[in-house]
Amino acid sequence: MNNIIFKNVFTNEEVSLIKQCVKDHDHMILKGKTSHQVTRGRYDLHLNDIIDPKILNKVQGYLDTLGDYKLGAATWIEYNNKITNPNLPPHKDPKNVKLTFDYQLESNIEWPIIIDDVEYQLKDNEAIAFDSRSQWHHRPEKIFGDGDYVQLIFFYINDPDAEQQ
User: Fold this and answer.
1) Does residue 128 contact residue 113 with C-beta atoms inside 8 Å?
2) How many domains does the chain have?
3) Tens digit of pLDDT for each residue in 29-39?
4) Exposed / middle / buried, residue 157 (Cβ in 10 Å: 0-12, 13-18, 19+)
5) Domain containing residue 33: CATH number
6) Which residues fall within 8 angstroms of residue 43, CB to CB, at 6 or more apart?
7) What is the pLDDT of residues 98-126, one digit of tens each?
8) What is the span of the domain harbouring residue 77?
9) Following DSSP, what letter does each residue of 32-75 receive, concatenated?
10) Which of 77, 72, 116, 114 is nearest to 96 (CA)?
11) What is the pLDDT of residue 164?
12) pLDDT value of position 158
């Protein structure tokens, strides 16, 4: 599959629903509790059970245009320097992740994603779908200033065959 960029992923109303969901569940945001959060400078909030189902259904609609993909976990992420300076080193995702729909909710800085040495600068309300288990991906080194942030939602598409191995 080629990497595909989606623009204007959600309506303004849907973006507001997502942001309100995060705000309403602030008490559930994981901050400094996992190694990824501590070493990579990020907060996490698992969305599947708390977000309006129409958001997940809309993402599933985008996935349907790409092939036979079923949406799995959806996780809101905020990279900021409150724990440590954010970093996302080159990596491939685990074998059970078939595809990632990487959505940029909101950012006040530019921090592109690099996939197999190609840089993609997403804007707010844009996403890129890519094969995150076979493609190397990362974000370049960048010093985040106080108040700098990038909010993303990682919509993962799991491979049921890989999960059973």
Assistant:
1) yes
2) 1
3) 888 676 667 77
4) buried
5) 2.60.120.620
6) 29, 30, 31, 37, 77, 78, 80
7) 899 999 999 999 999 999 999 999 999 99
8) 4-163
9) S-SHHHHHHTEEEEE-TTTS-HHHHHHHHHHHHTTSS--EEEEE
10) 72
11) 45
12) 83
